Amino acid sequence: MIQESLGITARKPSLMGRALLALEASGACRIAPGSLAGSGVIFMLHRVRPDDGAAFSPNRILEITPDFLDEAIRLVKERGYSCVSLDEAVTRIANRDRSGRFAVFTLDDGYKDNLTDALPVFERHGVPFTLYLTTGLPDGHAEIWWVALERIIGAADEIEAHLPRGPLRMTSRTAAEKNTAWENIYWPLRSMPEPDLRAEIRRLASVHGIDIAAITRELALTWDEVRRLAAHPLASVEAHTASHFAQAHLSAHDARMDIEIGIARMEAELGYRPRHFSYPYGDPSSACTRDFALAEALGFRSATTTRKGVIQPRHARRLWSLPRLSLNGDFQDRRMLDALLSGLPFALARPVKSLGID
What we know:
This protein has 358 residues and is of the alpha/beta class. The protein has helices at residues 2-6, 15-26, 28-31, 66-78, 86-94, 113-125, 136-139, 145-155, 175-190, 194-208, 212-219, 223-230, 252-270, 289-297, 334-341, 344-349, and strands at 40-45, 47-48, 63-64, 82-83, 102-109, 129-133, 158-163, 166-171, 235-239, 276-278, 302-308, 322-326. It is globular, with a radius of gyration of 20 Å. 43% of the residues are buried.
């Protein structure tokens, strides 16, 4: 296995993680004005699974362990938050409800471990949650290209990517070289038009012998598994497009079609029209004012981004561009989560627009 050849390394906090730890240790979060914490928080998760400890694991930011999910739920309850459904949270936001802070748990895309590893934790605590489903995953045609890229680099001693500024060739023998290759390839790919990004990933996969379709079959929920979640009293399944394209990178027509195809597939397979939506990627470069207006026009009751922040009174007027707080695989520390819940990191970072703070 790749991680065996690279060796297993202990995790060290990232620069942002160290900043959060320092902020929490300073005591500033405990004396910050309560208004900074807002009225509640919408948590964003992707995968929930045990950490394999691999030295090269760039998508780890999208993963938390079942144990940390358990700890996060315990922490928000200890801090007096009510864990509510997304639908109830949107009602509270719209009504500017000040009866107490709420927490909502949402999971993006539709990974199999949401059923096998996350659901038992939510059941143990009696906590509702929402899965935002990319319907192309159970259909089998959507590409989890970011995992494909990780496996391409992980398997390669050398990689040549065709990027907007021209070909880039890098060695990728060690974990350090693989992490450098990821940073130099992933972000330029993200800047490309969606068809070009996907075409380059397919080319790289072909060169390096990676089966992208097999990754989807391995990691994604099937429709029968989605139906099991949709029928569960704690779960709701909502919309996340058909193909997981960055909406802002598409024409207005194609953006609308990707959402509408996803809606139609959910209606056909689950028997209802989704009421809530989440933008793929959801950062400022991937979802913009045009896309917020489209979500509203399509009749969604709310739409969530990946812009960072807690829910404030102003979001009553911005139900189709709600911020979330990522349960990030690099921040699996109770102290970091406590700092984020205070709202102080977002208040301090808000002047830096590039951070995507809302």
